[in-house]
Amino acid sequence: MKNFRFECLINGMWRASSDGKTTPVTNPSSKKLLANVPSLSKSDVQSAIDSAGKAFELWREIPARKRSDLLLGLANLIIAHTDTLAATITAEQGKPLAESRGEITYAANYFRWFSEEAVRINGDIIPSDSNSKRIMVIKQPIGVVAAITPWNFPLAMLARKMAAALAAGCSFIAKPAPETPLTALALAALTLEAGIPAGVVNVITGDAEMIGAALMHSPTVRKVTFTGSTEVGKILIRQSAETVKKLTLELGGNAPLVVCDDADISKAVEGAVFGKFRNAGQTCICVNRFLVHEKVAPQFTDALITRAKQLVVGDGMNSATDIGPLINNDALAKVTRLVESASREGAKVNLPPAPTPAGSTFFPPTVISNITPQMSIWKEEIFGPVCAIATFANDEEAIALANNTPHGLAAYLYSTNLNRALSLAERLDFGMVGINDTSISAAQAPFGGIKESGFGREGSKYGIDDYLVLKYLSVQS
Ligand code: SIN
To answer: Which atom from ligand 1 is nearest to the alpha carbon of 250?
Structure first.
């Protein structure tokens, strides 16, 4: 990969912090230091905002077809660098190499998809009440976009924001999570290689609070897109008031997986394995609450335990590994607390976590039943490879239990009766529902939630609207 440096990209140039400060990035599996990245000062952050502000004036004038070609070129470069990018993701994030490779295809798909959308930003002509008047609606880029991205998908979450913003004609500032900045810097290097003009993409690293506040308070930044916790999302909503910024928020989830008594149990178990253990349970759309019909609960639980026992926990670089480490000690402490409190509160730990080396953040697959809705493990986002199983007696009860959460990101259900499945899906208060399917993420599908899981959609034909503003032209002849 040409140009790749452990520095920030501002106005097309690699930059250290002006005061020389850095932050370490470590491998969550080996705990070894991978790199030190700049911890930018406030004035460095301002120079990234200024750079994006200037570049916006240039980028918005570049014809859509040209922007589209550049994005497609970037998609191809991402695929061409799969090996390096996958190794970087696994090193800093921990997920198994095969999952990292999957993430790269997923990320490249966003650039490919939005390269195709860039040339379809069509307006409207609306009939007026008078023959001498025309009403036209055009769509224009919103301006400078700042993206605050999470550590669980260091490439894909950045790609789905950057691709849509650039396709719309916006310039872009990325602030990756402090745990996983290296993948974002690698993507920054590829944007240069793809020929995207200087300043259109800026990637900055450093203190999350200071950078977040600088981006939120800047009148130049017209939109902020964030994937992360509901808690931080609420802070951003409050901060956005000052400059009336547009937001896209993809926040926490608490996904239920409903297994009906007529479900194909082996398919439901395979869906559960993917939907729960992907990325060691560290995705916003991971199954958090298993809701299994009481008639099939013993069969489902036994089969899930059998499959969970087959999963190999270890370093993501090892090709046999299915489940890598949790991202850090805080994550480990949270998952441990939730399992211990469920056990204290009367849940049955059918498959306890197998012992792991002291000091590591590995958390082996765990299956717990007899869960009740009062338990913390039911109410909080686990973000770890723990299956919490409750039962229900009828569809009404399943819907009431599934919807009883402030979150509304993803939900899943298994039934062989399509009519029943569709009517249950319509009653689930979530932005995305997988029917006999837990692999729901795709560039062409609208990703996003309702309620406290946020607003706005990413990917799909809807995703570009979040980066556009409508302008109405009233033309009198
Ligand atoms: C997330 O965890 O927020 C994203 C997961 C995905 O895109 O599949």
So the answer is: 3
Q: State the pLDDT at residue 419.
A: 98
Write the DSSP string, 402-466. HH-SSEESEEEEE-S-HHHHHHHHHHS-SSEEEES-S----TTS-B--EETTEE--BSTTTGGGG
Tell me the best of 152, 284, 409, 439 to mutate to test the pocket of ligand 1, counting ligand atoms within 8 Å of each CB and taking the most: 284
Of 441, 444, 460, which is best to mutate to test ligand 1, by the most ligand atoms within 8 angstroms of its C-beta? 441
CA of 195 to the centre of ligand 1 (A): 28
Half-sphere exposure of 147 (CA within 13 A, CB side): 32
pLDDT digits (tens, 9 = 90+) for 254-311: 999 999 999 999 999 999 999 999 999 999 999 999 999 999 999 999 999 999 999 9
Residue located nearest, by CA, to atom 7 of ligand 1: 441
Structure tokens at 168: 């719309």
Q: What is the pLDDT of residue 413?
A: 98
Catalytic residue among 8, 284, 286, 387: 284
The token duo for 154 is: 């260091």
pLDDT confidence band for 202 (50 / 70 / 90): very high
Between CA 398 and CA 414 the distance in angstroms is 12
pLDDT digits (tens, 9 = 90+) for 159-178: 999 999 999 999 999 999 99
pLDDT surpasses 90 at 1: no
Buried b (16+ CB within 10 A) or exposed e, 295-312: ebbeebbebbbebbeeee
Model confidence band, residue 113 (pLDDT cutoffs 50, 70, 90):
very high
Residues recorded for the chain: 477
CA dist list (Å): 350 to 254, 308, 312, 386: 22, 11, 18, 11
The answer to whether residue 284 is catalytic is yes
CA 307 to chain centre: 27
Residue with tokens 């509901």: 230
Q: What backbone phi and psi angles, to 5 degrees, belong to 344? A: -60, -35
